[in-house]
Amino acid sequence: MTTVDLAAATQTTDKHACLGHPEGTSRRTALLGIAVAAGAVCAGCSSSKSSSASTSPSTSAAAGSTSAADSSSSSSAAGSSTGTASSSASSSGSSGAAGALAATSAVPVGGGTVLTDQKIVLTQPTAGTFKAFTAVCTHQGCVVGSVANGLIVCPCHGSAYHIADGSVANGPAPTALAEIAIKVSGGEITQA
């Protein structure tokens, strides 16, 4: 029969030899280091996405050149925001002119168009009357999803707003959508 010294076995499971440290490193210390590193990577990714959405792709790529991880996440974020911007422009009917939000023909009478990337909803309550509101729901900050039957509808909790003035038609939204000043000229809608 073999006897095992439990006190010695317990001590060896808590400490592991580290090549650079002769006394060893505890498992907790190693896991804590990994957790801190993972948190730093996540924080770096989230800040690089938000900065790349508000800057041009060349600026975000230059800003992300400090490390390989930042550079790759920044360039992928810039690529994804470029892709969504072009799909938004095509779905809104924008003619591509600088500053134009959309063509007037892209906003149906009695309805509207949600410009997700710009967080703006354009409406045309009556023929020739165009309105713009923030597309951010006043309930919990979701971006509204559609315009139908004279209402701007938020998909998160069912809030609805009137297309004529942005006032609340259905809760739980507590207040109206803020109006955004626009200018209509030459068949295009621009932010004033």
Automatic annotation (TrEMBL):
Which residues are in the Rieske domain?
Answer: 99-191
Q: Which domain of life is it from?
A: Bacteria
Q: Tell me the CDD domains matching this sequence.
A: Rieske
Provide the alphabetized UniProt keywords: 2Fe-2S, Disulfide bond, Iron, Iron-sulfur, Metal-binding
Among InterPro entries, the record links this protein to: Rieske_2Fe-2S, Rieske_2Fe-2S_sf, Rieske_Fe-S_prot, Rieske_Fe-S_prot_C, TAT_signal
List the cofactors.
[2Fe-2S] cluster
Pfam families for this protein: Rieske
SUPFAM superfamilies with a match to the protein in the record: ISP domain
Q: What is one cellular component GO term in this UniProt entry?
A: membrane
Q: Extract the GO molecular function terms from the UniProt entry.
A: 2 iron, 2 sulfur cluster binding; metal ion binding; monooxygenase activity; oxidoreductase activity, acting on paired donors, with incorporation or reduction of molecular oxygen
Q: Does the keyword Metal-binding apply?
A: yes
Locate the region Disordered: 47-91
Give the function comment from the record. Answer: Iron-sulfur subunit of the cytochrome bc1 complex, an essential component of the respiratory electron transport chain required for ATP synthesis. The bc1 complex catalyzes the oxidation of menaquinol and the reduction of cytochrome c in the respiratory chain. The bc1 complex operates through a Q-cycle mechanism that couples electron transfer to generation of the proton gradient that drives ATP synthesis.
Q: What is the protein's given name? A: Cytochrome bc1 complex Rieske iron-sulfur subunit
**Biological source species:** Catenulispora acidiphila (strain DSM 44928 / JCM 14897 / NBRC 102108 / NRRL B-24433 / ID139908)
